[in-house]
Amino acid sequence: MTVVKICGMRSLAEARVAIDVGADLLGFIFWKPGKRYIAPSEAACIIDTLRAEATAWSAVGVFVDPTLDEVRQVTDACHLDFIQLSGQEPADLVKAMPRPTLKALHVRAGQERHAAETVVGNTLRADRYLLDTHADDLPGGTGRPFDWDALSGVGPTCLVAGGLRPDNVAGALGSLSPYGVDVSSGVEFPSGGKDPRLIRAFVEAVRSYDQRAD
Fold first, then answer.
1. Considering Cα of 58, then 61, then 62, then 64, what sign does the dihedral take?
2. How many of the other CB atoms lie within 10 Å of CB of 104?
3. Domain segments of the chain as ranges
4. How far is it, in rounded angstroms, from Cα 158 to Cα 177?
5. Distance CA 50, CA 4 (A)
């Protein structure tokens, strides 16, 4: 079954919807310049409340070029299960993380082979990789897909992000057969904030594909 990660959680209500419809991972962004930033104290309240209600999910803390001490402090305060690194973190920092680590690779057009080689050789020493679309001014959340077919060889070991929506996630699943999919902007209202209807539609689209593929 494809792992589903809903990223950019900022309220208990939207996080609760994601859990209720079957999301496996919830992402909390601790990069202050990001529009989906959440303070660790607020994330901790959401995570602790949800843990009392459901256990079949995991919390992912998303960081961009953090210090090890910063990650440790937030991990302890929020009881994170996974760390996602979405900047230019070197292999020694990735390896030093206090929880299993997802390392985002920002795929540039024409450099798909380099991304694939990084995954195959695990040159950044991550527990798993997340393939996302490169943008010069953003470490993620671009809302744009990359060339899925070009990374099909490593897709089954990775999570995939970048421009996924309820109406196109089946295409990504068909091209990449990924370990998991990651969505943020694709399940949001135009004005911002998560749209419960789109969250539900996204998860249902993934599970429908899984059933057809069995």
1. negative
2. 24
3. 3-207
4. 9
5. 17
* Both tokens assigned to 134: 């490169």
Measured in whole angstroms, the distance separating CA 22 from the mean position of its chain's CA atoms is 15
Q: What is the pLDDT of residues 108-136, one digit of tens each?
A: 888 888 999 999 999 999 999 999 986 65
Which regions of 66-152 does DSSP assign to beta strands (E)? 82-85, 101-107, 128-133
d(CA 197, CA 187): 8
- The pLDDT score that the predictor gives to residue 144 is 65
pLDDT tens digits, one per residue of 76-99: 999 999 999 999 999 999 999 999
3, 180 Cβ separation under 8 angstroms:
yes
pLDDT in tens, 131-179: 998 665 555 455 567 788 888 899 999 999 988 999 999 999 999 999 9
Cβ pair 89, 106 in contact under 8 A? no
Q: 64 with 139: CB under 8 angstroms?
A: yes
CA distance 212 to 43: 36
Taking the C-alpha atoms of residue 4 and residue 166, their distance in angstroms, rounded to an integer, is 12
Q: Which of the listed CATH numbers 3.40.50.300, 3.20.20.70, 3.30.479.10, 3.40.30.10 matches domain 3-207?
A: 3.20.20.70
User: 37 - beta bridge partners?
Assistant: 29
